[in-house]
Design brief:
186 residues, mainly alpha, elongated
């Protein structure tokens, strides 16, 4: 038997706790997912507590599996639900990604301008620029979304770079360690 020992927060409690941190589209999606999960858990609890040999509901296993497939389908639909706001958020995210890519490539090419120039002069026309660009861009794949957001904020001037090393916070020290302050002398 499956026994749920944890009491989840009510939808009102969940909404109050998250309404300040999420958009209306995210909240609607969360409510849809919560409803689908509740229905699926109720279904599973009902059938897990019944004896398959004696319960009337288990006499037609195909009907049980159909209901299970329906619960799964409802969960998938709720999870994949998108509103117009979600589409706008996604397009904004794509713009941020394109902006990040552009700023990152500017930073990398500026930081390694002398190396890139020497490669260009040595290789000449044999240089495969697309391979070189792919190599330079590969560094972006190792950055988390948080690091990318931090990089964009840094490029927007959200941080004061005039501080000396003794007044840096641990967060700013980490930023320097991972190379976001390429042009700044430490």
């Amino acid at each position: 038997l499956i026994e749920n020992t944890r009491t989840p927060p009510s939808p009102a409690q969940s909404t109050q706790a998250t309404s300040k941190m999420v958009s209306p589209a995210q909240e609607e999606r969360a409510n849809r997912v919560e409803k689908a999960v509740t229905e699926a858990v109720d279904f599973l609890e009902k059938y897990s507590n019944l004896d398959p040999d004696s319960a009337e509901e288990w006499r037609d296993p195909d009907a049980v599996f159909t209901k299970l497939a329906e619960a799964r389908s409802n969960l998938e639909a709720a999870w994949n639900f998108k509103t117009d706001d979600a589409e706008e958020d996604e397009s904004a995210s794509q713009l941020d990604e394109a902006r990040f890519r552009s700023l990152y490539m500017d930073m990398i090419t500026s930081a390694f301008a002398d190396v890139l120039e020497s490669i260009r002069s040595e290789e000449g026309d044999e240089l495969d620029v697309s391979v070189l660009v792919d190599c330079l861009q590969s560094g972006m794949d190792f950055m988390s979304n948080e690091e990318k957001d931090f990089f964009l904020q840094d490029q927007d001037g959200a941080f004061d770079e005039s501080m000396d090393d003794s007044s840096l916070t641990p967060h700013e020290e980490r930023r320097r360690e991972i190379g976001f302050d390429v042009g700044v002398q430490s």
